[in-house]
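can u do me a favor
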């Protein structure tokens, strides 16, 4: 299979496994999604979805958020980790949204990435999931699977994102990045990986990855 054929196989298989693609972080608008994505850095979506209802009950818009102190925000979001940085970011970006954007989340990568505690991945998720703009935010699952599938040699997420965008048609990006994440969690995890369940890697996996897997899977005498 050529690289393009392997990419097509991935698109087709994931479409069959995940015909509908729910957004993993609970939110009601662009602002609550932005906050949820920011909280998800080095934290599970499950944990974020437990914490955001508590935070949003007090403040689900920038005007209410700035009425809270950084310390108050920090206390609520502590279970998500990195709370000192995240609480400052949430308070700071809420101020900027009020001052510069009439309380609205801007619809551009540049404007989003200029906000405190918002990096390229967070901006990409918001652009994709809140505004429907084609983007391909790369997390650890996507980074791992693009390598396992021989679709990227990316040593970092920047390169992996570049490779994914070059390989997959633009109109597939918004669903596909989520489908790959769901597939990585369910069928192709970093730990406790069972290749028998992982139909995509079994079919198109990088030879060195498959060889390593079979070596480790061999029963010891």
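np, heres the sequence
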């Amino acid at each position: 299979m050529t690289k393009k054929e392997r990419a097509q196989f991935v698109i087709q298989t994931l479409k069959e496994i995940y015909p509908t693609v729910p957004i993993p972080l609970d939110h009601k608008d662009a602002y609550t999604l932005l906050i949820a994505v920011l909280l998800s850095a080095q934290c599970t979506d499950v944990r974020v979805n437990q914490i955001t209802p508590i935070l949003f009950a007090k403040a689900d818009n920038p005007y209410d958020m700035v009425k809270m102190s950084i310390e108050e925000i920090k206390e609520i979001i502590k279970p998500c980790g990195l709370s000192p940085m995240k609480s400052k970011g949430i308070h700071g970006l809420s101020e900027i949204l009020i001052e510069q954007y009439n309380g609205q989340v801007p619809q551009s990568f540049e404007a989003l990435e200029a906000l405190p505690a918002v990096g390229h991945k967070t901006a990409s998720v918001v652009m994709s999931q809140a505004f429907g703009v084609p983007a391909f935010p790369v997390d650890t699952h996507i980074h791992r699977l693009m390598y396992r599938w021989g679709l990227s040699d990316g040593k970092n997420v920047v390169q992996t994102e570049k490779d994914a965008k070059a390989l997959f048609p633009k109109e597939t990006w918004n669903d596909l990045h989520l489908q790959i994440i769901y597939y990585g969690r369910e069928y192709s995890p970093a730990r406790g990986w069972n290749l028998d369940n992982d139909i995509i890697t079994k079919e198109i996996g990088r030879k060195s990855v498959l060889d390593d897997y079979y070596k480790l899977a061999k029963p010891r005498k």
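Residues 31 and 61 are 7 Å apart (CA to CA). hope that helps!!
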